[in-house]
Write a structure and sequence with these properties.
The structure is a single chain. The chain has about 200 residues and is α/β, with parallel strands linked by helices. The protein has one domain: Vaccinia Virus protein VP39 (Rossmann fold). About 35% of the residues lie in helices and about 25% in strands. The protein contains 6 helices and 7 strands; from the N terminus they run ααβαβαββαβαββ. It has a 7-stranded mixed β-sheet, with helices on both faces. Helix 5 crosses helix 6. The chain is globular and about 40 Å long. The structure holds S-adenosylmethionine. S-adenosylmethionine binds next to helix 3.
Length: about 200
């Protein structure tokens, strides 16, 4: 995966050891994000029984994907991530959902990554992943890349750090072509934002 030249970049998602360590630390933090996950799930405009197709962008070990698969028992998920180590860990952790998910390795910091995602989705979601690229122009490009992956009326919901500001991020979604853009949940440093494909 592309390394970010940034003095405060401290993640090494390509390292199996780093990923194992991160996942271990994340265990204790999972309860803190259940409220945001619940708000994101509630914003999905689908009935519980709907057989929706979900794309989890930067899915990691599948924390959000698993949350949604548990709430939508007929849904399936494609988990995209740039880290093979994360995808391997996700394959293990998501075993209770075997047959309802698959992983795609793709680096979203690179234009053209969506060529590796050969499907159209009812919902694209993401959790604490896209900010990793740091550069706001790249974040805007990723939002624009996601729009064509959605079916008409489909939604994109992103739980992430709002840099530079929440208002800027909402503007990025609008300029990417999403409509009915809004903030669905706001925490201290992170929010759930999203919009719909016309
Ligand atoms: C903080 S983890 C979050 C993982 C997961 N979404 C969650 O909430 O548990 C960030 C994830 O983003 C992925 N990631 C970071 N930069 C990426 C890139 N350029 N392309 C694809 N995935 C990337 C990492 O591999 C990692 O799995």
């Amino acid at each position: 995966m592309a390394k970010i030249a940034d003095p405060w970049h401290h993640h090494d998602w390509d390292s199996k050891d780093y990923v194992a360590d991160w996942a271990e630390r994340q265990k204790g933090r999972e309860p803190d994000r259940q409220e945001a996950f619940a708000a994101l799930a509630a914003a999905l405009p689908y009935k519980k029984e709907a057989a929706i197709k979900i794309l989890d962008v930067g899915a990691g070990y599948g924390g959000l994907a698993m949350y949604l698969l548990a709430r939508f028992p007929n849904a399936s998920a494609v988990c995209q991530d740039g880290s093979e180590a994360m995808a391997d860990l996700g394959g293990e952790r998501m075993k209770p959902f075997a047959g309802r998910f698959g992983y795609i390795l793709a680096d979203f910091s690179k234009p053209g990554w969506t060529r590796k995602v050969p499907d159209r989705f009812d919902a694209a979601v993401s959790s604490i992943a896209i900010h990793n690229v740091r550069d706001t122009k790249t974040i805007q490009r990723i939002y624009a890349d996601i729009l064509p992956l959605l079916k008409s009326g489909g939604c994109f919901l992103n739980f992430d750090r709002m840099r530079p500001t929440l208002e800027d991020q909402l503007g990025f979604l609008e300029r990417a072509g999403f409509e009915r853009v809004k903030c669905f949940w706001q925490g201290e440093t992170r929010s759930v934002i999203g919009g719909f494909k016309p």
